[in-house]
Amino acid sequence: MIAFVRGRVAALTLSSAVLEVGGVGLELMCTPGTLATLRTGDSATLPTSMVVREDSLTLFGFVDDDEKQIFELVQTASGVGPKVAQAITAVLSPDDLRRAIASDDVKTLTRVPGIGQKGAQRIILELKDRIGAPTGARYAAAPTGGAPWRDQVHQGLVGLGWPVRDAEKAVDAVAPEAGDVPDVAALLRAALRTLSKA
């Protein structure tokens, strides 16, 4: 297994980052929050999880080890594959997920695209004794300027499957929360909450 990847960020797309490692470009599937912390040309180290399928090898990259562990843990629940696991890490921080499971908060889990009420109840039931208590870790604000956060949040929403028009409305709805130093990951989560209420 590949535990982490360190290299120069060669390219960024809506859903992945390409890191150049020893002359080889490795594509890592990442959440919008993780992608927001990366800049083309900079050096980066990302914890990774490799998902092996009969017809593919997919490498997922994470902002930290805690997010990676959550991604791997939620896949042990019935009916949760890598795509839904990545959606969970995109919408909920590790501590938000731990709190939701500890408090039987089905509503919070159903904000994740691909998880319905029964799926949320199953995740709570199967992971409650294994997920642990919130760690209190806080994610640092992504270093972005004025308007680039809008593009990043918009691209993240579209990458997660929301229609372009809905994504634009959600970005406009969370714009007042941006402040002087926008936290792209927090704004993305807020936009997803807006969309789940609609």
From TrEMBL:
Top-level lineage group: Bacteria
InterPro entries cross-referenced by the UniProt entry: DNA_helicase_Holl-junc_RuvA_I, Hlx-hairpin-Hlx_DNA-bd_motif, NA-bd_OB-fold, RuvA, RuvA_2-like, RuvA_C, RuvA_C_sf
Residue ranges annotated for the Helix-hairpin-helix DNA-binding motif class domain, each copy included: 72-91, 107-126
UniProt-listed SMART domains: HhH1
One Pfam family hit: HHH_5
Keywords: Cytoplasm, DNA damage, DNA recombination, DNA repair, DNA-binding
UniProt free text on domains: Has three domains with a flexible linker between the domains II and III and assumes an 'L' shape. Domain III is highly mobile and contacts RuvB.
Name of the protein this chain belongs to: Holliday junction branch migration complex subunit RuvA
